[in-house]
Amino acid sequence: MKEVVSKPYWYVDLKWFFGILFTLALTLTLSLSLANRLTEEKTAVDLSTVALATLFSRDGGGLDDPKAVEEFKAKLKESDEELIRPIETIPAITISRDDVEKLSPRELRLKIFRQITEPLYNEGVDGAVKRFTDNPEEQKKLANDASLLRFLTKDTHEKISSFLTIGIAVTVLFLIGLVFFSFGWGRLGNPGLILFVLGLPGAAFGLLISNPPSNGDGGGLSSLPPEFGVAIAQQLKSVFGLVSLGGLTLLVVALVGSIISRRRRRIAKNSA
Asked: Are residues 171 and 128 in the same domain?
């Protein structure tokens, strides 16, 4: 029968050392991964469109307020024009007669502000405002109104992607150290536990904001526009849910493997 050799203290210390470093690096990398996904073009434009439309709809009934649509219809009746410029200070933004007649108030608002957020994403706030108006005062006002959207740009996404690549490399390096200085099925169980524990809160929060309570505790989440909650929840569940599931899988494999190994040793001992 094979004799089990205990590891020296320094070996165990290094396991904990790399375990802590792996936990810290993975936490940072998961955060960067989430930010990277949120700043991808489709997601970023969707989020910034909803944010901007909501910002400019606060005085009325929100994104679903029909008042603006009624005003547009009234303008169309008074004119033979096929296009309307809903924002007088930004003549490049237009909607058609078909848009007014067929789209819901929410869809119409999102279409209007998407024409702003797409250039904002690709050109940045400072570059996009110059496209919309030549008036320096209007440019300054637009830049201030869109200041909260500076994070959701292509430039930000590219910077985050660079940091994410470094974060992944460092995390893998610490993972290798943790696995090397672990023992037996702990080589799966130790990283599995860390993955599961770090991924679970993010995945749970993703489920919460995708199904926010309408009142009571957490009712503030219900004030988020549905598009906002869905987009963020998808990315949270995708990043943290996948990590948590992977960690749980490693834990189960390690547990089953450990049970089988112990059983085999017991059988071998009894037959000796």
From this structure: no
Per-residue burial over 175-198, b = 16 or more CB atoms within 10 Å of its CB, e = otherwise: bebbbebbeebbbbbbbbbbbbeb
Q: Say how far apart CA 155 and CA 132 lie, in whole Å.
A: 20
Domain hosting 22: range is 9-39+153-271
Tokens of 12: 């165990």
Do 132 and 142 touch, CB atoms closer than 8 A? yes
35 and 48 part of one domain:
no
pTM for this prediction: 0.81
Q: Tens of pLDDT along 30-87?
A: 999 999 999 999 999 999 898 888 877 766 567 777 877 788 878 777 777 788 888 8
119 and 212 co-located in one domain: no
**Rounded to an integer, what distance in angstroms lies between the CA atom of residue 28 and that of residue 241?**
16
| Nearest-angstrom CA–CA distance, 158 and 3 | 53
d(CA 115, CA 53) in angstroms, rounded, equals: 11
Identify whether 16 is part of a domain: yes
Structure tokens at 113: 């502000």
Write down which residue in 116, 149, 182 finishes a domain.
Answer: 149
> Please, what is the Cα angle at 134 between 130 and 139, to 5 degrees?
55
- Say if residue 137 is in the same domain as residue 65: yes
Instruction: Indicate if the alpha-carbon torsion angle 149, 151, 153, 155 is positive or negative.
Output: positive
